[in-house]
Design goal:
30% of the residues lie in helices and 18% in strands. By secondary structure, it is α/β, with parallel strands linked by helices. The protein folds into three domains: 5-355, Alpha-Beta Barrel (TIM Barrel); 389-481 and 621-671, Rossmann fold (3-Layer(aba) Sandwich); 486-619, FAD/NAD(P)-binding domain (3-Layer(bba) Sandwich). The chain has an eight-stranded parallel β-barrel with strand order 3-4-6-10-11-12-13-14, surrounded by five helices. Strands 17-16-15-18-29 form a five-stranded parallel beta sheet, sandwiched between helices. The chain has a five-stranded parallel beta sheet with strand order 20-27-21-22-23. Helix 14 (397-409) packs parallel to helix 16. The longest helix has 20 residues, at 142-161. Bound molecules: adenosine-5'-diphosphate and iron/sulfur cluster (SF4).
Length: 692
Amino acid sequence: MSRDPRYDILFEPVQIGPVTARNRFFQVPHCNGMGHALPEAHAAMRAVKAEGGWSVVSTEECEIHPSGDLSPYIEARLWDDDDIPPLALMTEQVHAHGALAAIELTYNGPTSSNLYSREVALAPSHQPLKYGYPHQARAMTLADIADYRRWHRNAAIRAKRAGFDIIYVYAAHDLSLPMHFLQRRRNQRSDAYGGSLENRVRLLREVLTDTKEAVGDTCAVALRFAVEEFLGEAGISLDGESRDIVGLLADLPDLWDVNLAAWYHDSTSSRFAGEGAQRPFTAWVKQVTNKPVVGVGRFTSPDTMVRQIRDGVMDLIGAARPSIADPFLPRKIETGAIDAIRECIGCNICASGDMTSTPIRCTQNPSMGEEWRKGWHPEHIPSLPKPSRVLVVGAGPAGLEAARALGQRGAEVTLVDAARELGGRVTRESRLPGLAEWARVRDWRLVRLQTMANVAIYPDNRLEADDVLGFEAEHIVIATGARWRRDGFGRSADLPIPGFEAAGVFTPDDILDGRLPEHGPVLLYDDDGFYLGSVLAERLVQAGLDVVYVTPEDTVAGWTTNTLDYRHIQKRLRKLGVQIITAHELLGFAGDHAELACAWGGARRTVACASVLTVTARLPDDGLFQALAARQPAWADHGIARIDCIGDALAPGLIAHAVYAGHRYAREFDDARDPVSRRDSVPFRRRRFVAS
Ligand code: ADP
Ligand code: SF4
């Protein structure tokens, strides 16, 4: 296949100060939960992006000094010369694939924690640390400002020694000192660094100038700047000062990287923002500067990318999530393999790695975070040494990915599903408000499967144990999913909730199958705490039903802080008029009302409701697997070597878990070890700090 000439413009080189990007695909900085703690894993992950055709591959935030320590979040670190070799691992591997390496230097002042370093944090003025740590940052003296400038300069020099080509000055996401000096709410100084805009821009200008003087002979100096914080006068805003700030610094940086703050406005999930959502906020920047501009917008469509360039919105297509979901996105456009692009679904599971200080994972790309520790490559899987016949039962995310990856490996695969429409939970959930893009999990796999002559797909076929045994495949994998419980058992209720056996109690599966309550108010009991309860509340409101949302937790959809959805969900539910009752357990349902008890004091209250939607826990739909397991002595007679159960049918989890389970099954399918030694060993490579 060859490249569509319409996309030629995406492959033009772009001069950035003293360096040249070979094309317009720019992997902007993104966190990954590996950073300084797992340098080999980090380097391997970045290298795969360079191999996949990104012309620039950036680090995440890189701390420059112990007094700007971001623990427990795991970012890059350049505190002293000892931190150079781990980062040089990345630049060497990125350069080996012909890409430029960029580093995002940061000093987060009042948005750091210093939990690890125990240093006192610095800020433009005295203020509490942003993320709730019980300590304050102190107002910087002029000597502190000089220190900070020297630390930044030293870090830039170290970054150059580590091999970086582009050095970022960071003033975005409400996360770094030059930005904090710009913000009126954080900068209450009355000296030359406070008050007028000219004064508040001073530090940013100085740091840009320092960096250019220190490393600008061979390195480009980029500025990452958030043009809008959505905080009115208290923050940087388009109606306020952001245009003036860009005007004041116009041609000082070699590259403008422009976006929105805070992070949840920048990496907004697909539920709340579509492709290219930042354009109205950033399109003007190119009019103000002669320097190249990079911007983001979860771009996965080459046509949309071309439009950004042709319309003069940006010069380089910035991407974090699209490069995570498909590290080979540029190569696929370059080779005309547009159908092969694994489009990001905007679920933000990748962000949860950073938020939980664990290695990044991705719903669409199960190899993300496994490049070094498991040696998984997003495009290549070794072919099977000998042909194998595999029956995959269930075409949800687990079964689809198992079939796809096995097909890629050369197995003779039969994929069977009871439903007429393939995709399992992904198909059903993608019909809910805001989740349409989740269907990409199914669509990418189906398109791949349709190209494979060695895979046969049979929808609308419910298999029983006899059918499976009679199929006589050597390997059988059961990926039959899970169903939501109706009895109320979950994290909070140890026993079934009285009244839940009666009519008027609905589960998420009922709603997904189109069986909605006829009358409201509906009491939605969310003991799950992630996205689904709030999405179902939206669905019920859409159907004209009044909703009372009750959760035993202190907050609505608590785990969605990890996917940056939390604030958007709070606002959405209130806007929809959903009544919210937190910190209450559901004791029972009596047909026209429910009894609640305060989770803390036990105080009772009654809520009138005509029905209940219970979102508590799931049970594996593993009847088929259990029936087959019970007949293990007969397997050999049917030529069956193994029967495995994977995904939600084994233990219900996220879509990301199911895709991973399917991929892992296919990867480890020919593992020659016996099951016991396999389970007894650590299933991935680890970094050891002390030689044994
Ligand atoms: P996962 O997330 O683990 O992939 P899903 O619930 O999304 O699980 O998908 C499970 C799929 O398995 C559904 O599409 C369902 O129709 C299918 N399925 C369940 N039981 C059977 C069966 N006995 N025979 C064939 N397909 C089945
Ligand atoms: Fe996109 Fe979700 Fe993957 Fe993140 S985890 S890159 S949002 S598909």
